[in-house]
Specification:
CATH architecture: Roll
CATH superfamily: Hotdog Thioesterase
GO cellular component, one term: cytoplasm
Mean pLDDT: 96
CATH class: Alpha Beta
Low-confidence stretches: none
Radius of gyration: 15 Å
Number of strands: 7
Family: Belongs to the thioester dehydratase family. FabA subfamily.
EC number: 4.2.1.59, 5.3.3.14
Helix content: 10-25%
Shape: globular
Strand content: 35-45%
Keywords: Cytoplasm, Fatty acid biosynthesis, Fatty acid metabolism, Isomerase, Lipid biosynthesis, Lipid metabolism, Lyase
Subcellular location: Cytoplasm
Number of domains: 1
Structural class: alpha+beta
């Protein structure tokens, strides 16, 4: 695998099939749960803490699956999907760094919502700032993240935690 600094949707779909980091390693979910269309920037330096940064985007259009069911007559992107996208990106970063194992979200600290994604929006931007990466008995990524819609920040999460596991049998 080449360590690129940006990824297209097609490359992210390869990751969802387990073709990017190898079998049994970090994998993104397949559509419809893949909440990212592209990664425009990924690094192991930079960001607020100097330990890595990811910027990714999701194109919004009114026929996205979640607008049909959340909520009827009042369509809005569920906040949990944006939170999941941030976990997806932290796990992707661990795989991109070359760590082995299957990714699992392990929680977060404080999450704040102060805006929404509606069907007439154009683009969601996720920004992840890696705080710490630990590679011992457990590989763990810890990050802070934010979600913006059309350039306006609408929620934040602190202490996003994702682990990589070589076996998930007892998880």
């Amino acid at each position: 695998m080449s360590k690129q600094n940006a990824y297209t949707r097609e490359e992210l779909l390869k990751c969802s099939r387990g073709e990017l980091f190898g079998p049994g390693n970090a994998q993104l979910p397949a559509p419809n749960m893949l909440m990212i269309d592209r990664i425009t920037h990924i690094s192991d330096t930079g960001g607020r803490f100097g330990k890595g940064e990811i910027v990714a985007e999701l194109d919004i259009h009114p026929d996205l699956w979640f607008f049909q069911c959340h909520f009827e007559g009042d369509p809005v992107m569920p906040g949990c999907l944006g939170l999941d996208a941030m976990w997806q990106l932290v796990g992707f970063h661990l795989g991109w760094l070359g760590y082995q194992g299957r990714g699992r979200a392990l929680g977060s600290g404080e999450v704040k919502f102060f805006g929404q994604v509606l069907p007439d929006a154009k683009k969601v931007t996720y920004t992840i700032h890696i705080k710490r990466t630990i590679n011992r008995a457990l590989t763990l990524g810890i990050a802070d993240g934010s979600v913006a819609v059309d350039g306006r920040e609408i929620y934040t999460a602190e202490g996003l935690r994702v682990g990589l596991f070589t076996s998930t049998d007892s998880f």
